[in-house]
Design goal:
Largest sheet: 3 strands, antiparallel
Strand order of the largest sheet: 1-3-2
Oligomer: single chain
Shape: elongated
Number of helices: 6
Low-confidence stretches: none
CATH superfamily of the largest domain: Ribosomal protein L17
CATH topology of the largest domain: 50s Ribosomal Protein L17, Chain: A
Strand content: 5-15%
Order of helices and strands: HEHHHEEHH
CATH class of the largest domain: Alpha Beta
CATH architecture of the largest domain: Alpha-Beta Complex
Structural class: mainly alpha
């Protein structure tokens, strides 16, 4: 029976589990996302999020505490420099687990764990832009909706005509200048022969 066992032992001894989680946390901090099994990702989430919270207060004591868990000075410096700059105002929830299906070899449930603020697809900037361009779901009169569309269509056609004229003008000038240049070069050749 597993009474009182609060965390997943992952089928490893304590030292092996700590070393594995330290390596995975270092990789997550350095690469911003890693692929692993769901069980390991959940264990890693509980391991790395308190370390990110510690990194918000950049003191020598906190750096030594984080280093005692990660045992990688490059990951510690990355965490206290780049990662904390993005997650400084976030009150927790620094990682996201996205399930990616099952592994072919042993059918283990796989996922991708990533740092939330380093994903450009789900960033808050896009969310705020989409909120500002709010559209009404009510249907208005058809005449009012058709009129702006017709105006924008006419404006686009005018722009296309202007760009075509602008493209054709240099070509026409080049054609006019080309025969004159040929005549001048023929005269120059005749002068050299004499």
């Amino acid at each position: 029976m597993r009474h009182g066992k609060k965390f997943n032992h992952l089928g490893r001894t304590a030292s092996h589990r700590k070393a594995m989680l330290a390596n995975m946390a270092s990789s997550l901090i350095e690469h911003k996302r890693i692929n692993t099994t769901v069980a390991k990702a959940k264990a890693l989430k509980g391991f790395v999020e308190p370390l990110i919270t510690k990194s918000k207060n950049d003191t020598t004591h906190n750096r030594r505490i984080v280093f005692s868990y990660l045992r990688n000075k490059h990951a510690v410096s990355e965490l206290f420099r780049e990662v904390v700059a993005k997650v400084g105002d976030r009150p927790g929830g620094y990682t996201r687990i996205i399930k990616t299906g099952n592994r072919l070899g042993d059918n283990a449930e796989m996922c991708m764990i990533e740092l939330v603020d380093f994903n450009e697809l789900y960033s808050n900037e896009k969310a705020s832009k989409s909120k500002s361009t709010r559209r009404s779901r009510r249907g208005g009169s058809g005449k009012a909706a058709d009129k702006p569309a017709a105006e924008t269509k006419a404006a686009k056609e005018d722009e296309v005509k202007e760009t075509k004229k602008a493209e054709e003008a240099p070509k026409a000038e080049a054609k006019e200048q080309a025969p004159e240049a040929k005549e001048e070069s023929k005269e120059g050749e005749a002068d050299t022969k004499e």
